[in-house]
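User: Sequence for Valine--tRNA ligase below. Tokens please.
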Amino acid sequence: MEKTYNHQEQEEKIYKKWESSGAFTPHNTKGKKAYSIIMPPPNASDPLHIGHARFVSISDILIRYHRMKGEAVLWLPGSDHAGIETQYVFEKKLKEKGKSRFDYDRETLYKMIWDYVQENTGTMDKQLRRLGASCDWTRFKFTLDPDIVKIVLSTFKRLYDEGYVYRGERIVNYCPRCGTNFSELEVDHVERTDNLYYLDYGTIQIATTRPETIFADVAVAVNPSDNRFKKLVGRTAKIPLVGREIPIVADPLVQTDFGTGALKITPGHDATDFEIGQRHNLTILTVIDETGRMKNVPQKYIGLKSEKAREEVTKDLESAGALVKTEKITHTVGVCYRDKGLIEPMISKQWFIKMQDFATQALSAIKGKKTAMYPKKQEKIATHWLKNIKDWNISRQIVWGIRIPAWKCDKCMEWTITSGEVPQECAHCKHTTLSQDIDTFDTWFSSGQWPYATLQTTKDGDFDYFYPTSVMITAYEILFFWVLRMIIFGLYLTGEVPFTDTLLYGLVRDKQGLKISKSKGNVINPIEMTDKYGADALRMGLIWGALVDNDISLSEEIIRGQRNFANKLWNISRFILMNKKDGNLVKRPRVSHADDKAVLVEFKKAAKKITKELDKYRLNTAAELLYNFVWNTLANDYLERTKSRREPAQKTLEYVLQETLKLAHPFMPFVTEAIWETSFQNGDDDLLITSNWPS
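Assistant: Structure tokens for Valine--tRNA ligase:
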């Protein structure tokens, strides 16, 4: 062995050896227990961030552990087309060239994004290899693979045929900059200070933060329990500037302590107002278009951005004597999760899935322990989401993604739904002139089918053998976005949950506990850390000091400390193995000396505890037990005691080291494999990665 461990010389060479050996692909599965994980697919064209590195570390520890236990292990990798995420990044690049998406037809823009993704695909794959991900690359899937797309389209048609899909006109969260609507989950809510305008509506005064939308008002609402307005219910109010009369209605959704206690109702531009409007059969008017500009208003405001229109309308209200007063208010507003600009609620026709039946099935599966969540507290959060679920808007106004297979008839205006093939005639009136919907599926619609779709399209027998999968490992922040939808689709498509366990891990924060982001300047680049300290050090750092389900504070100091541990393991091994006489594995020696007996007992205790902690997903505890055994029990205690009787203790030293390398391998695969091949490997196929876990 070299005097010092050089990770830069070892890691690429070792990974190639693992991959070429076929160790990542399950072989001879007959009679073996199946253990499978479907990788949450990272964006195909983006580099990995530190959050990705954490899920790789957690997943690979479990994969390597179960592989060494002799199970048939499959870790299926993949990448995501990432819908709006990818298109948003591509549009920023277009903007740098003075272009926008509106300069291209749909087919051209799609092809440009496809080429961009293909050019950048491979970055993520290489980085997964750098981190030591022992996934089966022979089964790699992409969310836009034709066979995956076919399944997604078939699911949509089945949902439609069974009455779960409908086309509805509802209030949606629309981003005028991105040009698409978002689900409520994709909208960030931030606090900010705005003006609250008190306006005179003749018989009543109202308060609003959006005077520019008064032209779309269809009523004024008050709370039925508010005695101040009881005599006004049933009468009319008058919209200033235009003089249109609107009814005064009573509705329990009105907050009596906000503003004047009277709320102007604009169903076309507010979700609460939409709900009130539906209950009172009110007309829906809209005055802001998809670009955020005014329409259907007096001529002087037409074409103005809504923010500018607010200024102009306020001036005119003041001139007309209708502006009673203005005061500051701190409230919560919705912003686009991509560009952080204001979301514009607006009425739009979209495709929806009725979710109530599916939510009931998922609740039953969770309650019946068909799928267990770690930590257990996430079950309560999941239950809350499912009990309060709303119909899911699955259509997006973007080009990049899977286009919805719906064709509208020019004659009867009805929709014909297929599994992707182009219909020759309308399913309702047999007319032959049809046009396809331009919308694409919400990314989560396709990725919600990921476990089912991947195993159905890889190798024969994969689905029957590996489904349901063993555990889904992902961040807790996408519990509803993805995990619950996978459970819903799994139950719907197969009658079974897609995974028996869900392990939801916490966020990676900096050493001050702040969320890592580019804007804060505290980004930790996983590949830079791997280059500097080695993949083993980064992996250990990413599980060190906190339960998997908790947020962790990561710093370069922590990673450096784990690099020191890798060096310690190398130096211990070098000291022990310099006296090893052959490259054979060592059987458990028969010993009589008290120190030898003691170390074997301590090793067995450590192995048992580490195994127990891994089975319970307490990876940090398992890592700390390993660290303490290596550093204290083996190095500081036993190694020191044997220096005066080296020869009789040699076989015990070799055996304990050999078995310790097995315990350490899932956590620090590169350095342990590098040590193993120097003294415990008989032939190229005798790798540590496929050795047996200590019993």
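The chain has three domains: 33-159+365-401+439-501, 180-345, 557-690.
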